[in-house]
Design goal:
By secondary structure, this protein is an alpha+beta fold. The protein has helices spanning 7-12, 17-28, 80-84, 142-151; strands at residues 39-45, 48-54, 63-68, 71-76, 98-103, 108-116, 119-126. The chain folds into two domains: 1-33, no CATH class; 35-151, Immunoglobulin-like. The chain has a four-stranded antiparallel β-sheet with strand order 1-2-7-6, with no helix packed on it. It has a three-stranded antiparallel β-sheet with strand order 3-4-5, with no helix packed on it. The termini are far apart.
């Protein structure tokens, strides 16, 4: 497995610590990470996204969606009682517990979640604060600036 030294990035930039940490985390991640349950990430509009997770066999009460700062955690825990009462001849629908983590970009927040037809849909939106949006700066003429300075 390759490892990359990101220390030059830390020395040459200011405020990109989170990005460098994220790159470092992705590069050192185990390649055998679980693909259960399957999921899709869609871009539904310019600044809107949807994560759809296949959660067949789970009820609303057994599912959990939580946003922790810049991370979305989707988890499920199946009640043990129900499994003990059944005897399966073939079991092809996996209902084992899971926890999926998604790293969210700055200013991305969860707007809602819905569970229908065995799919859990989590809607997200990227909301850029007004202070970070581009704004037009009025250009004053030189004579106007001098007049304002003399009046003060």
């Amino acid at each position: 497995m390759r490892t990359y030294d990101l220390s030059p990035l830390y020395r040459a930039t200011v405020g990109f610590d989170r990005m460098a940490d994220l790159l470092n985390q992705v590069m050192t991640q185990d390649l055998g990470t679980s693909t259960y349950p399957p999921y899709n990430i869609e871009k539904t509009a310019g600044d809107a996204y949807r994560i759809s997770v296949a959660v067949a066999g789970f009820t609303d009460a057994e599912l959990s969606v939580e946003q922790r700062e810049a991370e979305l955690v989707v988890a499920a825990r199946k009640e043990k009682e129900e499994e003990d009462q059944r005897s399966y001849l073939h079991r092809g629908i996996a209902t084992r517990a899971f926890e999926k983590r998604f790293q969210l970009a700055d200013h991305v927040r969860v707007t809602g979640a819905s569970h229908e037809n065995g799919m859990l849909h989590v809607d997200l939106v990227r909301e850029v604060p007004e202070a970070l949006k581009p704004r037009q700066i009025e250009i004053a003429s030189g004579s106007r600036r001098v007049i304002e300075a003399e009046a003060a």
